Amino acid sequence: MHIQEVFNAIYANHLYEYLVIDSQLKIVEYSDKAFHLCENRPQNCKEMHLWEVLPELCGLEDEIEAIFKGEKSHFTLPYIQKTPEVYVHIHIHPGRERHKPKEGYIYETLIVLFENITEVATAQQHLIQERNEKALLIEEISEKNLLLKRFNAQMKDLVEEEIKKNMEKQRIVELQARYSQMGEIISMIIHQWKQPLNAMSIIVNVLKLNLEKGALSKEAIEEKLNDILSQVRYMDQTVKDFQNFFNPSKEKVRFNVYGAIRTVFDLVGYAYEHKNIKLILEGDESVTLVGHPNEFSQIILTLLQNARDAFMEHPKEDMRIVATVGTERDHCLVIVKDNAGGIPEEIIDKIFDLYMTTKTYGTGLGLNIAKQMVEENMQGRLSVRNIDGGAEFRINI
């Protein structure tokens, strides 16, 4: 017989429990806690048939018989869950040899070992779970990357579409500004031509009266005709001046800032004087800039028109627009200020926004385009503030 204490001593400090079975598959010995791993947990396993306590081995009669006969050295049934918390390997090894083999059986008993692999199985389950979770995560990331690519493609199409729309909108804005400026040009030319047309009208009337009186001499006719030609040349020069003024220059050149503003004042002076608006130019006459003088002149014209329109909305006796040329920290500084009452504080921060205007018939284009010219084309800054009962625009370049 087997000695129980010997087996207990061998397996007491290891992860093994055991059963010993005879050739009839009856349990003859077992360790103290082996019954915890048996089916239905019997209190006493002795003399019980192996299938009663380990139904997992049913169907493995041939392998068990082969070990009894010495045809197999051992047999293992891996990863058997005996309880919700316990996993084991079931190992079957030869036991006690027969003194005289009987019916071909070399061994009298076999030893069934329970190897507790709960920690290993749990770790493997966790590993498999983590692997599955990672696989799911990778699959989810892959799907999200695919969605992101589709989204990026859609966004690219949307951005390109918006860029096209913005370009078209900008083109429309530029056309609107151009049409607005054309209206201003026609208005200015009309004002500039009024005086010479009046003069020619008077000359023609004088000639007509002298002709009726028969008091015309060749010299008098030539003098009056020369006067008419002089007025025609003035009108022709006026058109050329406006044409040059609004034709964009392709290359940057160095130009005199004071002189450029003076040219603007000369072109629009008559129209502003007709509305009782005084144009005053002061400051340093030697300041120069490198850039496009026509663009700079159009910026000044826009600021003058903005002040003029403010005066037309709220006319007063003393209406003045003062342009001052100077320098600040080695940069050109031009200040254009008026006494037209200023800009409402609630919109002064938005005055350069597209289509923002305080005028009844304003387009909201001029100041927006002027700011773009200063800051994008000239790398300068255009700002505004209210001061001394009016608005003050500062151009720093």
Folded structure, characterized:
The structure is a single chain. The chain is α+β, with helices and mostly antiparallel strands and 397 residues long. The chain folds into three domains: 113 residues, Beta-Lactamase (2-Layer Sandwich), CATH 3.30.450; 99 residues, Orthogonal Bundle (Helix Hairpins), CATH 1.10.287; 147 residues, Heat Shock Protein 90 (2-Layer Sandwich), CATH 3.30.565. A five-stranded antiparallel β-sheet has the order 2-1-7-4-3, sandwiched between helices. Strands 9-11-12-14-13 form a five-stranded mixed β-sheet. Helix 7 packs antiparallel against helix 8. The longest helix has 96 residues. It is rod-shaped, with a radius of gyration of 53 Å.
Features:
397 residues; alpha+beta; Beta-Lactamase; Helix Hairpins; Heat Shock Protein 90; 5-stranded antiparallel beta sheet; rod-shaped
A few lines on this structure:
This protein is α+β, with helices and mostly antiparallel strands and 397 residues long.
Q: Topology of this structure?
A:
Blueprint: H1 4-11, E1 16-22, E2 27-30, H2 50-53, H3 61-68, E3 75-81, E4 87-94, E5 97-102, E6 105-107, E7 109-116, H4 118-213, H5 218-246, E8 253-256, H6 257-274, E9 277-283, E10 288-291, H7 293-313, E11 319-328, E12 331-338, H8 366-377, E13 381-387, E14 390-396
Parallel strand pairs: 9-11
Antiparallel strand pairs: 1-2, 1-7, 3-4, 4-7, 5-6, 8-10, 11-12, 12-14, 13-14
Helix pairs in contact: 4-5, 4-6, 6-7, 7-8
* Main sheet specs: 5 strands, antiparallel
SSE order, one letter for each helix or strand: HEEHHEEEEEHHEHEEHEEHEE
Strand order in the sheet with the most strands: 2-1-7-4-3
Structural class: alpha+beta
The top-level CATH class of the largest domain is: Alpha Beta
Number of strands: 14
> Are there runs of 5+ residues with pLDDT below 50, and where?
none
CATH topology of the largest domain: Heat Shock Protein 90
User: Looking at the structure, what is the overall shape?
Assistant: rod-shaped
* Average of pLDDT: 81
CATH superfamily of the largest domain: Histidine kinase-like ATPase, C-terminal domain
Spatial gap, N to C terminus: 111 Å
